[in-house]
Amino acid sequence: MKIRRNDERGHAEHGWLDSHHTFSFANYHDPKHMGWRALRVINEDRVVPGAGFGAHPHRDMEIISYVLEGGLEHKDSMGTGSIIRPGEVQRMSAGTGVFHSEFNASKSDPVHFLQIWLLPSAKGLEPGYQQKAFDPEKRRGEFKPLVSPDGREGSLRMNQDAVLSGAFLEEGKTLEHTLGAERYGWLHLARGSVAVNGEALNAGDGIALDPGERLAIEGLAKDSELLLFDLS
Questions:
Q1: Which helix (H) or strand (E) holds 124?
Q2: Could you read off the pLDDT of 163-203 as tens digits, one per residue?
Q3: Residue 227: closest CA among 176, 167, 159
Q4: Cα–Cα distances in Å, from 136 out to 24, 58, 190, 207, 217?
C-alpha cells in the first residue's frame, strides 16, 4: 500500500483553472508517477464561472468525468451535448478520434470535478459516449460499480478490464474490501477524511494497491466520498 498525498500532486494554476494532477500530465512530469496499470490520469479540476476547455482532440483513451460540485457542460464531435452534475458519471471513449469541449455551465458558481483517463484495451475502437445518474444512497457504506467493462449492476461500459466503483462513508462507519489475487487497485479519496488500515487520508489523497490487499476503511468525517479502481 503506497500513499500518494494530495500535496505531493502536480499543480497547475491558470487563473480560470486550478488543477491538481495525481499522475504526470501536460507540463507536470514525474517519472515515478506516470500512472498505475491502465489508469493514466486523475486530475482534480476547479473551473471559474463561464470558463472552460475549448474544443480539443482525443484518441485511444477512455475518459470519465465525475462532478463533485456545480455543473460541467459537455459537447463533442459525435453530436452529444449535456450538463454533468453531482451524482452523474460520464464516460467517453475517444477511440479513432473525438473533439470535445468542457465548460462550467454556471455564470456565477465554480465547478469542481475529476477528469479520469484510462488506456483502452485496444487502439482504433469506435468512439462512444454514455452518461448516467447514480443514486448516492445505494453507495452508502459499500462500493458500487459506476463504470465497468461489462456494464455490471447498471454501470456504464468502458473498453478496459477495469472497474470504477464509488462509496460514501459516514463518520464512525466502516467499510472493508479485498482485491482479487491477480488484481491491482487505486483508491482515491474525492472528499472527506478516512482511515485506511490505520493510515489517515484526506481529500485528494490516493493509494496504490497490490493484488490481494485488504482494506479496512473507517469514516473520519461527516460524509466522505471514495473512488476505487479495480485494475488488471
A1: none
A2: 999 999 999 999 999 999 999 999 999 999 999 999 999 99
A3: 167
A4: 30, 30, 14, 23, 18
